[in-house]
Amino acid sequence: IDSIKVEDTYDGHKLGDVMTQEFIDDMIERFKNGKKIHRKYVFQIIKAVKELVYAEATMVEMEVEKDTSLTVCGDTHGQYFDLMELFRLNGFPTDNHMYLFNGDFVDRGSWSTEIALLLYAYKWLRPNRFFLNRGNHETDDMNKVYGFEGECKAKYNEKTFKLFSESFSALPLATLIGKKYLTLHGGLFSDDKVTLDDIRKLDRHKQRQPGQAGLMMEMLWTDPQPQPGRGPSKRGVGLQFGPDVTKRFCDNNGLEAVIRSHEVRMEGYEEEHNGKCITVFSAPKYCDTTENKGAYINIGPELKLEFHKFDAVPHPDIKPMAYAQNSLMQQMAM
Ligand SMILES: O=C(O)c1nn[nH]c1-c1ccccc1
Ligand SMILES: [Mn+2]
Ligand SMILES: [Mn+2]
Ligand SMILES: [Mn+2]
Asked: What's the whole-number mean pLDDT along residues 137-165?
């Protein structure tokens, strides 16, 4: 990247070798005004974060220390202006206001590069105060179809997407909060015997994409169901798990609850399975069509869950999936 020179005419804040709050504040304003940042900085940010998250455990373990708090957010799906609304209501990330984003940062909404770069910039600035779990939309197959690949190529270039793709494969798959709440994007497993240690021991670097079977796929794809036992997934990938599965997993692993995302909820969140399976979704008015609220969860040092809902805000007139590459049929017709 050193060979790339930033032109004197570039009107944005300059980035040196380390991330700064000033750079982030300038980037937030540029993105709000429909501007981009220099591709040199895009490469720097993604490469720095890829190295940071690569070195993290497959299950990150963190505590909410005295005088700090943690906000858990669910899917944001490229809805940058709604993420700004969340930060306006709940506070921007700081040293003692930590954030965890529980996957599906990108795809669908047409400001996916803005969201990904902002979350990455915060990760680089405060790596031990800002946490990212991989979602099923941090994968090549989904990004090709649901807009992120097309948006990277349209706003930046092909290399930008390749770097993001490599960084997505490096992301942790779960984050344990205060030994009581396991957060992951999708949900639980086809096997009752899976323990936190199995997740810790999972070598995520051996398998870059989740595929159609296995622990990684299930962590990114499964959904809760009201009936006991396990059932087929409505998505054709993964499975559905009932309240008994969640109870056994929590009891076997000393957990209070599992916090997951991956599905829209009309109120932005939902406590299911007798409060042991919690869904949090942070993309209000999803795809500009569903009349759902967004939500986030605030957790203090006493590890109590405080649920907050919020509404979508107006955004520039760019539709969801504006950069999605031509559909496969159209591509074949080319
Ligand atoms: O984009 C979504 O709605 C989504 N969020 N998580 N998984 C999906 C999805 C969308 C289409 C097909 C399969 C999964
Ligand atoms: Mn999603
Ligand atoms: Mn998902
Ligand atoms: Mn919208």
From this structure: 97
Among 146, 264, 287, 328, the mutation site with the greatest number of ligand 1 atoms within 8 A of its Cβ is 146
The pair of three-digit structure tokens given for residue 284, joined into one six-digit string: 């209000």
User: How far, in Å, CA of 167 to CA of 273, rounded?
Assistant: 33
For 223-230, which contacts have Cβ atoms below 8 Å and span 24 or more sequence positions? 223/186, 223/187, 223/262, 223/263, 224/187, 224/260, 224/272, 224/273, 224/277, 224/279, 226/272, 230/190
H helix runs in 100-214, sequence order: 112-125, 140-146, 148-155, 158-170, 196-201
Cα–Cα distance for residue pair 283/54, rounded to 1 Å: 27
Rounded to the nearest 10 degrees, what angle do helices 112-125 and 21-32 cross at? 170
Quote the ipTM score.
Answer: 0.89
What is the rounded distance in angstroms from the CA atom of residue 18 to the CA atom of residue 242? Answer: 46
Residue 79 CB contacts under 8 Å (≥ 6 apart), including other chains = 108, 109, 111, 115, 283, 284, 312, 315
Closest protein CA for atom 6 of ligand 1: 262
Active site residues: 137
Instruction: Confirm whether pTM is higher than 0.95.
Output: yes
Which of 228, 261, 35 has the alpha carbon at shortest distance from 133?
261
